[in-house]
Amino acid sequence: MARFVYRLQKVYELRERKKKEHEQRVIDAQKRVRDVEIAIEEKKNEMRMVRKNMLASPHTLMAAHDQFLHHLNDRLDELYEDLTIAKNELEKERQLLIKAQADLEALVKHKEKAREEWLEEEKKLELKMLDEIAGQRYFRAKLQEELDNAEYEQLTQDAEAENY
Q1: Contact between 57 and 65 (Cβ < 8 Å)
Q2: CA atoms within 13 A on the CB side of 68
Q3: Does residue 67 carry a pLDDT above 70?
Q4: What is the rounded CA–CA span in Å between residue 160 and residue 29?
Q5: Residue 162 CA to chain centroid, in angstroms?
Q6: What is the distance between the alpha carbons of residues 141 and 114, in angstroms, rounded to a whole number?
Q7: Cβ distance 83 to 36 under 8 Å?
Q8: How far apart, in whole angstroms, are the C-alpha atoms of residue 141 and residue 130?
Q9: At 164, is the secondary structure helix, strand, or coil?
Q10: In this predicted model, what pLDDT tens digit does every residue of 70-99 receive, in sequence order?
């Protein structure tokens, strides 16, 4: 029996590869979001430490601590903006992954349907071949039966001719 060959196999493999690439992009985007969240927590901890040290330091350093806190606060705002951008990028990558999965799923269903149609066609061809073989056997059996009948009649006629 012949092997099933999917005529869109290259497209199927391309979509599979595309889906895997999008999965990796989603993982990378999730990692970027986590990294930014960790950086935010580190900045918050650094700000807590500066405020704690500010209480224990001399009053002459208050202005320097205040400037440093403003700097940290600006950096924290930038990190929140980065977090928003990273989350938007993650959502965009998830949407692309969903689309890639849908495209692949459609092709998987098409492949399954094509395989079922191929199997049906193979069954039809096999039945046709078996019908042809059965017809040939029947024809040979009838031919042999006719030959046997003709030979029997010939023998019968020969035997009757000898008896007369």
Answers
A1: yes
A2: 15
A3: yes
A4: 103
A5: 85
A6: 40
A7: yes
A8: 16
A9: coil
A10: 999 999 999 999 999 999 999 999 999 999
The pair of structure tokens assigned to 10 is 């290259």
Residue 3, φ and ψ in degrees, nearest 5 = -90, 145
Task: Give the Cα separation of 134 and 36 in Å (integer).
Answer: 75
The alpha carbon of residue 113 and the mean position of all alpha carbons in its chain are separated, in whole angstroms, by: 16
Q: Is the pLDDT of residue 21 over 70?
A: yes
| Other Cβ atoms closer than 10 A to 28 | 13
CA distance 79 to 38: 10
CA distance 120 to 113: 11
**Structure token digits, residue 138:** 């029947």
Tokens matching residue 9? 């196999």
Rounded Cα distance, 65 and 54, in Å:
6
Q: How many CA atoms lie within 13 A of 160 on its CB side?
A: 6
Mean pLDDT score of the chain, rounded to an integer?
91
> Cα dihedral sign for 73, 78, 83, 84?
positive
Q: Which helix (H) or strand (E) covers residue 28, if one does?
A: helix 9-56
CA pair distance 90, 103, nearest whole angstrom: 20
